[in-house]
Design goal:
This protein is mostly helical and 296 residues long. The chain is built from 12 helices and no strands. The radius of gyration is 19 Å and the shape is globular. The chain starts with a helix and ends with a helix.
Length: 296
């Protein structure tokens, strides 16, 4: 049974839902506010899950180097989030998303093979460029203006591309540290460490800028932040579980199909119009996903 692959795809759907509810919160919500809400919610959920599963003591008995890898991965992921959002502000969303996701797929597959000793089926590997091609068609060709040009100036686009590349590298290192640590502990203990560290990092931000506290938002924004945070937590848990069953690189590959699900969900939940180009790109990514699954 393709349990690891199934959880990676569930992760992609849940991550898409995270984005849908962020968008439903409206343009007034701040990036820092989103990150505060998600990371605090994740930390609270991790503590509750560890308590329910009786693994809090296990987390405290965790070897120091394992806790260090998890904490380091958490810091890297938080830094990657900041870089990614910065890239989105600078450049075209489609270009940034495709560059970051495409490079993350390639680096994750290579890194998991080189540093974790994972083997990836050649047929599955063939699905990677198809998925990336689909993301390119969906996000870049579908993100052009009516005259066929991208909407951002060249200089800002280059800066955004650079930030996107650094983001992919940072996320890959974070993936490697987390994947290595999870091999030495259970996912509940791992989630506890991995989620409480960013929450503590963001704590001073809330004191320095009290207007960013999620509870200062309107009721509508709070609801969408909570919904987004819920899917953020469940998404992360499914990803953690998937990398205990399959190669982290393969999990990253399948999880990166999230834009395809986001496209469909945005049409349903946000009533966004689907273009032919976007549908073709999504179809290409689905073909790539089918190739990966068929190889298993």
């Amino acid at each position: 049974m393709l349990i690891g692959e199934a959880f990676a795809l569930v992760n992609a759907v849940l991550w898409a839902l995270t984005g849908i509810f962020i968008k439903r919160a409206g343009p007034g919500v701040k990036t820092a506010q989103i990150m505060l809400a998600q990371n605090w919610f994740a930390a609270l959920a991790a503590v509750l899950m560890a308590a329910v599963t009786g693994t809090i003591d296990d987390a405290f008995r965790m070897p120091g180097w394992v806790a260090g890898l998890l904490a380091g991965g958490a810091v890297l992921n938080a830094g990657g989030q900041f870089l990614f959002f910065s890239a989105l502000r600078k450049g075209n969303v489609g270009v940034v998303y495709t560059t970051t996701t495409g490079l993350f797929i390639v680096l994750s597959l290579a890194a998991s093979a080189l540093f974790l000793g994972d083997t990836i089926n050649l047929v599955a590997l063939a699905g990677a460029p198809i998925i990336i091609a689909g993301l390119y068609v969906m996000n870049i060709l579908g993100g052009k203006s009516a005259d066929g040009s991208l909407r951002n100036p060249r200089r800002e686009t280059l800066i955004a591309l650079g930030l996107g590349m650094v983001t992919a590298a940072v996320w890959t290192i974070g993936l490697l540290t987390t994947a290595r640590a999870v091999r030495e502990t259970d996912i509940w203990s791992a989630a506890l460490v991995r989620n409480t560290v960013p929450a503590l990092i963001y704590m001073p931000v809330a004191f320095m800028f009290p207007n960013l506290a999620p509870w200062k938002a309107t009721a509508r924004v709070r609801f969408n932040l909570v919904a987004s945070s819920f899917f953020f937590v469940v998404s992360y848990m499914t990803f953690l579980y998937s990398i205990t069953k399959i190669s982290p690189g393969l999990s990253a590959l399948l999880s990166s199909t999230s834009p395809v699900f986001a496209l469909a969900l945005s049409a349903i939940a946000l009533k966004e119009k689907l273009t032919k180009v976007a549908i073709i790109g999504a179809g290409l990514s689905l073909v790539g996903m089918a190739v990966v699954l068929a190889s298993r």
